[in-house]
Specification:
Helix content: 40-55%
Largest sheet: 7 strands, mixed
Radius of gyration: 24 Å
Structural class: alpha/beta
Shape: globular
Bound molecules: pyridoxal-5'-phosphate
Number of domains: 3
Oligomer: single chain
């Protein structure tokens, strides 16, 4: 494809995306296709002859555009629909998409400083900008020169894995033969257990001897007394507590673990375990100073991650990880074959991000942070988050105003967790399915822990208010949709 054709088609692609954003509200939120429908619409094998003919570029574009409409669009669940309230969001924005285009077009690999210095140094500066913006202590920033710093990973799962590998390296350096045990609340994300499986700590997903799932309190926060009891029991049995994952914003109900008390409990052990904070979703709220109560104790942790790609207007993928001390990370992940050696790396004066992650190659993802932070500024990002907090509060008050419903868990950020009082799990699932099938909105559910004081083990519904296009009328519309389905079920 020559550059004139690329240029012409690129303009049309930007039009297609902008039209999609303008029109998405008129589409049903949830895809209605059946399993296999998309497969059936696609040829079984790749075309033998190329379809692009430089003499007729329009023909190729027209064929692609028709197939996007016919095959792809019906199979989309519209994550950027203003009435998408499921899971946690995966935000996008104009500046971020433009940056992603530039990243693709420049096509650099930032595995070493030397393979594109701008890729590494922009990332270092952006992780400092962002770390400062959410109120991380100085030791996590490059500018402090204390050995800490941040890196862009694909996802929070990768950040947790990399942190656990660093923790394992640190523990094994001190006690090479120790049998290691990790700890997280029973509400922590499954990525903690998965990391332990990949790191060879846990033999399977059900290996609770090597990943202790700690009980939570009435607000779904990790119980530090239970954590201490479990760690002491493991020590007494000759095992070594080496890693604690504290969650700031659990997936189920956005509960915030008591990070400071978790760290203090770790510090009371003969060998201090690594403490990692998983703030995948809720960390974004800390751009607002009034939300930084969630970070109390973060000055004591070893690593911290959150995903700007969830709730901070940056396209997937952009998961950010900060460490207070990079040495254990490098001990865990650094390996230098001859073909990667170069003068800059040998000098020790540059960051080679390949040593901070599992893969070698890496994209120029910091462009997305740069474009987004420059476009909105910190004030703009704060206003964005605060508006979602306001809308979530509004939704919560609407739900509380109708006694057929109850809010079952305290709201910490932008997630409202609620249920129909009557009819139990069956009625709640049926209402959610009906709302989702209507195409008007999309919600997902979770179950509360068996020890929950209001609704033990119950199926509850979650509405995460964090869509970039979501405004007050969409939240009110969700409420009307819920009410009308509750009436049908009464
Ligand atoms: C608390 C928490 N941690 C980790 C994850 C996993 O995120 P990722 O897809 O970035 O690995 C999620 C996903 O929602 C989450 O809520």
């Amino acid at each position: 494809m020559d550059t004139p054709s690329f240029r012409a088609m690129g303009h049309r692609m930007v039009d297609l995306i902008a039209d999609y954003w303008d029109d998405v509200e008129s589409m049903p939120v949830l895809s209605k296709v059946a399993p296999g429908d998309i497969l059936a619409a696609l040829p079984a094998s790749a075309p033998r002859c190329g379809e692009f003919d430089p003499a007729h570029p329009d023909a190729f574009w027209n064929a692609l555009a028709a197939d996007i409409d016919r095959v792809i669009m019906p199979g989309l669940t519209h994550w950027h629909h203003p009435r998408f309230f499921a899971y946690f969001s995966a935000n996008i924005s104009g500046p971020s998409v433009l940056a992603d285009m530039l990243c693709a077009g420049l096509g650099v690999q930032g595995m070493l400083w030397a393979t594109s210095p701008a890729c590494t140094e922009l990332e270092q500066r952006m992780l400092d900008w962002l770390g400062e913006a959410i109120g991380l202590p100085e030791q996590f920033l490059f500018r402090a020169g204390a050995g800490g710093g941040g890196v862009i990973a694909g996802t929070a799962s990768e950040s947790t894995l990399v942190s656990m590998l660093a923790a394992r390296a640190r523990a094994h350096a001190a006690s090479p033969a120790a049998e290691l045990v990790a700890y997280a609340s029973d509400q922590a994300h499954s990525s903690v257990v998965k990391a332990a499986m990949i790191a060879g700590i846990a033999s399977s997903a059900s290996d609770t001897m090597h990943v202790r799932r700690i009980a939570v309190d009435a607000q779904c926060r990790l119980r530090v007394d239970e954590l201490e009891r479990a760690m002491q029991a493991d020590l007494a049995a000759g095992r070594l507590p080496f890693f604690i994952a504290a969650t700031v914003g659990t997936t189920g109900v956005t509960a915030v673990d008591p990070v400071r008390d978790v760290c203090l409990a770790g510090a009371r052990l003969p060998v201090r375990p690594w403490v990692h904070v998983d703030a995948a979703h809720s960390g974004a709220a800390c751009v607002c100073p009034e939300m930084r109560w969630m970070l109390d104790g973060v000055d004591l942790v070893d690593s911290f991650c959150f995903n700007p790609h969830k709730w901070l207007l940056v396209n997937f993928d952009c998961g950010c990880l900060w460490v207070a001390d990079r040495r254990p990370l490098l001990d865990a992940l650094s390996i230098t074959p001859e073909y990667l050696r170069n003068a800059a790396s040998d000098s020790g004066s540059v960051v080679d991000y390949r040593d901070w992650q599992v893969p070698l190659g890496r994209r120029f993802r910091s462009l997305k942070l740069w474009f987004v932070m420059r476009a909105y500024g910190l004030d703009g990002l704060r206003a964005y988050v605060r508006e979602h907090l306001r809308l979530a509060e509004l939704l919560e008050s609407l739900i509380r105003s109708d006694d057929r419903f109850e809010v079952v868990s305290p709201r910490t950020v932008n997630l409202v967790v609620f249920r129909l009082r009557g009819g139990g799990d069956v009625a709640n699932r049926a209402m959610m399915d009906a709302v989702n099938a209507s195409g008007r909105a999309y919600l997902t559910h979770t179950t509360l822990p068996a020890t929950h004081p209001v609704a033990p083990g119950a199926v509850v519904l979650r509405a995460a208010v964090s869509g970039a296009l979501t405004r007050e009328p969409h939240v009110r519309d969700l409420w009307e949709t819920l009410r009308s389905h509750a009436t049908l079920r009464a």
